[in-house]
Amino acid sequence: MFKTTVENLLNDALEERPDLFLIDFSVQGDNQIKVVIDGDNGVLVEDCIFISRAIEHNLDREEQDFSLDVMSAGAAAPLVKQRQYKKNINRTLEVKTESEKFEGILSNASDNDITLQWKVREPKPVGKGKVTVTKEANIAYIDIVEAKVVIKF
């Protein structure tokens, strides 16, 4: 009952802000509410406050004791929703499948798969020396075991 009420309040808040989307939601024992959100344009502290207030201001602490944590998906957290790939186009991703590991620039994110591109140095087809070649891989979402944005400083 309590979880359903919280979930409905959360969904209403997300409907108000279509740029934000849910990554994870749980209500633990002792009514510990945990919400993890992401946004098409990233997540600001104000976005977390908006979601937090939408839930907290519609619950009665006299009736129910609870704790509430609203946070953004961390920069190093694996991507879990297709929508997260679209917002990370042109960033470097590390993608693991069952059999391979890729690191490259995310150049496309369709409804079914992603396209990664990277450059490698290969021996020239003719003659001595090496040449830089752009490689590309299309990886279906269902084949992705884990994908993370590579943070470079």
TrEMBL record:
InterPro entries: Ribosome_maturation_RimP (IPR003728), RimP_N (IPR028989), RimP_N_sf (IPR035956). Gene3D superfamilies: RimP-like superfamily, N-terminal. One of its GO terms (biological process) is translation. Residues 19-75 form the Ribosome maturation factor RimP N-terminal domain. Keywords: Cytoplasm, Ribosome biogenesis. Belongs to the RimP family. This is Ribosome maturation factor RimP. The gene is rimP.
